Please model this.
Amino acid sequence: MPAEWNERTVAHLLRRVGFSATQEDIKFYLGLGKEKSIDYLLNYEAIDDSEVEKIIEQSKLNLEKLIGIAVEWLIRMVYTKRPLQEKMTLFWHGHFATAFYKVNEARLMRNQISMLRRLALGNFEQLLLEVSKDPAMILWLDNNTNTKGNPNENYARELLELFSMGVGTYTEEDVKEVARAFTGWTVNRRNNYAFTFDERKHDFGQKTILGQTGPFNGDDVVRIVAAQEATSRFIPKKLFEFFVYPSPKSSTIDRLSQTYKSSNYSIKEVMRAILTSEEFYSQKAFYALVKSPIEYVVGTLRMLKAKLATGNAGELGLRDIFTTLSAQGQILYSPPSVKGWDPGLAWINTATLLERYNYANSLVTNRSQRGSSIDPKALLAGAEVQTSKQVVDYFLKLLGIYDADETTRNQLKKYLEQNDDGTKGKFTLNHETIDKKIRGLIHLILSLPDYQLN
Amino acid sequence: MTVSRRDFLKATISALSLPLAMKHLPESVLGQTPDRILVVVEMMGGNDGLNTCVPYTDKLYYEYRPSLAIPEAQLLKISDRIGLHPALAKFKERFDKGNVAILQDVGYPEPDLSHFRSRSIFHRADPTTQEYFEQPGWLGKYADIKLAATNNPLSVVNLGDGKNSQSAPSSLLGEKFIPSTINSFELYQFQTDSKYPADRNNKLSAFKKTNFVTNDAEFSFIAETGVDAVESAERLQAGIKKYTPQIEYPNDSLGTQLQMAAKIIAGELGTQIIYTSYGGFDTHANQKQEHHQLLESFSLSVDAFFRDLERLGKADRVLLMSFSEFGRRPRENGSQGTDHGTAGPMFVIGNSVKGGLYGKLPNLAQLDRVGNLQYSIDFRAVYATVLRDWLQVDPTAVLGAQFENLGFIK
Model:
């Protein structure tokens, strides 16, 4: 049975389409109702997001550097009013995974992400075409060296294997022929690395690709590939697994594949089908995913209304976030390989968990003005809570945990009541306990297994 | 059918149903370092085997590689047919001492040219793998059999270089056992509020009691990994203090990881499997310089590692094995690079190794349809030899089938 439209459901939706819900978000979407909320999230162009541009401008970032463009994107994720746009952009970044460590040009990396953001819910064929012409992608997968008579298969293979159809749905011959079709698709280093088609390096001969024969160019390949049955299943399945839960039934993918085809490859329509599906609101979907480091960090900052060092000191102040993301295993603009980041429990190991716990500790215990910090007293303002039980329940909910076990609640309550020597004391909410126990409680909640799930 | 990890682990965890509190064995059991330690080095991206162990008497080699072939005069010859890449000088010294087995032309039937699939095949020792996350890797299976009962999360350690955090490779995934991943020793400890140190024990206790095993496998996996992390961190910090650096390692990814490995071995933490990896081998373009650096790093890092172990008196207990997901295509491409290939060499190094060249020379005259090498040694035979003669377990139990013993271990 699908879940009813309540706080828990809104929190679930916002964890998936964005980076968790603040209390204000929950009130807003609860008031809007389910259908209107989904429309609102999907039609994000209509939402004024100029505030975030202002924050970025004031932060005086150096956009020629990796740290600068990474911080810029983090600011967008934290402050945007268009959560789905940033989440989709992150999805495509993991899908068309291109990394700074080979491209070495922050500007090109940033341009690629801007393109992904612009087409995030657009037409998949157009997206694939622009990706194929994207300078960072061309350098990343060596298509600048793919020339007539000397094909380089790197882009061709990943286009079929990872970007559209999936492994096992094409032949090695197809890879070679696709590589020929993309010969001469290169960048002009003397013109700011702009995409250019070099006729002299292009192989104009006949090619046979996925059963069709012709003097194909890269545009033809993209057209042919976008229309493949394999693509109509691979892309919606990957979206479903990113937004809902792993290993959906094949009947679910049949349905989404139909939507992909009947909407002329509209990503927005596939997403609408996913966000309105019964599966999305099924019990099975709740907390079925593992938070990625970015979801963990950005979601935490948002729900705790963390104060970030933006403005002039933006880059410096957010450096700690960049560092922790790296240690947690997810650096923006630097996926580990062209396959992107592996989802689910692949995020979890002893090192990455320790880093999550330690980042949480440094955020909640930072009492200085540098870096990011929280104000536990402000978080309690307006909350009608007094007893240790009420405080525990309040913070669990504030951090999106609606299904905590009774054992968990009791242990957290016990922590609040404990004296330093471990004996049971009495918990009263006051200046000292807020500084000590509330900060400690938040650290413990951020270290719960419940909190690692999305 | 693919099983979700949730269902998969649910079955195993409830079968174990060990409350975490019961997992703790006396320190005396945990502190025993096993006699034999295996260190794996994964070269990620597909190492160009033909330019690593060069068949310098084969004319086709020079024909296929007009810009990349290494002139005979520059090679470090180890037989009348094979010369090593000039960056492998230190490695050659060890080969000459008889401590290195070079397995030539290692691969598997119906090779896959995808990095990810081929990597997965090597990790799971299964050329038919469906690559679902739940399928255990070969070392994970080994750990399930031999190490799960120790309940020591540090018995299998996956290392990173502190810059690029490496998630645990599929090789190490088991059904009953969670390996420890350590990217940097400095970061590997559970921190609490420094303003209230007296509250730390309360926090640690609450942390452990809220990270419990339930019938939800994902939740349990996270909880168990979390408790392992916090507990093993304390032991690790104490253990690595036993090491004082004296040997200089290359200041790069592999050098960093192998020095970490030496510290762990010196710390006697009960570690038996140490996994390291470094990338950059996907040399589609301008490979000369890059490949040189990667091999040089291997040669110097491995040399430093064994000298360190010799100094620490632990060298006899360590076997190092390297592999890459595939070799590269014999014919170079138009970008002074090479595309994805198939068979390539594997190295096994240690005092217990019967050094020498094993297997056939790559046959450049008989390539497959794509223009790639046909393998002569199945990589699973290398695993089988290591499993039986070094790790002392029945290889069939891990690999699911019998493979030839290659006899490279004394």
About this structure: The first strand of chain A starts at residue 185 and ends at 188.
